[in-house]
Amino acid sequence: MALAFGWTGLWMMGIANSLATSNAGIVFLLFVSYYWTFGVLTNTIHVTTAGTVGTWWFVPHEANRCWSSAIRDSFCRATTYSFGSICLGSLLVAVVQALRMMARRARESDDMQLLLCLVECILACIQDIVEYFNKWAYVYVGLYGFGYIEAGRNVIQLFQSKGWTTIITDDLADRVLLMMSIAVGAIIGLIGMAIAAANPNLLADLGLEEGSSIAVTAFLVSFLVGLTFCSILMSVVGSAVNTIIVCFAESPGEFETNHPELSREMRAAWAQAWPELTI
After folding, report:
1. Which residues, at least 6 apart from 151, have a Cβ–Cβ distance to it below 8 Å?
2. Is residue 160 part of a domain?
3. Which terminus has fewer CB within 10 Å in the chain: N or C?
């Protein structure tokens, strides 16, 4: 969180100068750098959490305390051997997110709004596909240290062989966490807009006219910051859920051996939710 806070401060100073000069190329690169940095932070947490949960699943005595060897080892692997895979997947998403933001900013003018709307919809679909791939690929990266493409291919093949493709598409955990992050981002956005309204000279350096432009800019920037920070925190919960699903698909026997009570509860809930699917 300290890294995220520091980077956000530096980024906001850079984006302020770029918005003032209306340099589209610099603004695009700044958006890429912002999304890429936070994507790397979030996915590092994702891979670290996956490795920790995997250790708890297979070797529970190594993950039985707050700062256990499972956390240290998983974090070291995420920031060394697996860091290239984390950066690659994060960059793909960051470029698409930056393009979406540029299209959204361009739609504020009256020119080609329909075309820009179509472009933004296409980019949103591409972003969903890449994020879906990343979500499961990074579980295998954290568990086994596979490369980015290999990990994604293996985990998708696992779900297909089990017939669980419906289950992973029906997973509501990420949607709930996303709704929470959006709610927090909206609250922070409203606070930022209120501060800008109370201090109209606060954003004068952006070269914006007083009124709606300042309010919209304050809301968007504050919303982006709030959403990003909350998403980083919620990513721990989401990563743990995804890892448990993968481990339950691959090694239910180890779960029964190491955590019999939780395994019985999981199997009972599973039979109730998806009685037609075997474990």
Report:
1. 85, 137, 138, 139, 140, 141, 144
2. yes
3. N
Task: Determine the Cα–Cα distance for residues 195 and 218; give it in Å rounded to an integer.
Answer: 8
Q: How far is the C-alpha of 249 from the C-alpha of 158, rounded, in Å?
A: 8
Q: Exposed/middle/buried for 268, CB within 10 Å: 0-12, 13-18, 19+?
A: exposed
Contact yes or no for 233/183 (Cβ under 8 A): no
Give SS3 for 98.
helix
Q: How many domains does the chain divide into? A: 1
Q: What is the pLDDT of residues 138-190, one digit of tens each?
A: 999 999 999 999 999 998 898 888 877 777 666 678 788 889 999 999 999 99
Both tokens assigned to 44: 């590092």
Cα 153 to Cα 158: distance, rounded to the nearest angstrom: 9
Angle between helices 148-162 and 83-106 (to 10 degrees): 90
Amino acid at 187: I
DSSP string, 121-144: HHHHHHHHHHHHHHHHHHHHHHHH
Residue 216 near residue 206, CB atoms below 8 Å = no
Give me the half-sphere count of Cα atoms (radius 13 Å) on the Cβ side of residue 8: 16
Domain span at residue 11?
A: 2-273
Kindly state whether residue 278 falls inside one of the protein's structural domains: no
- Between 59-63, 84-88, 198-202, the lowest mean confidence (pLDDT) is in 198-202
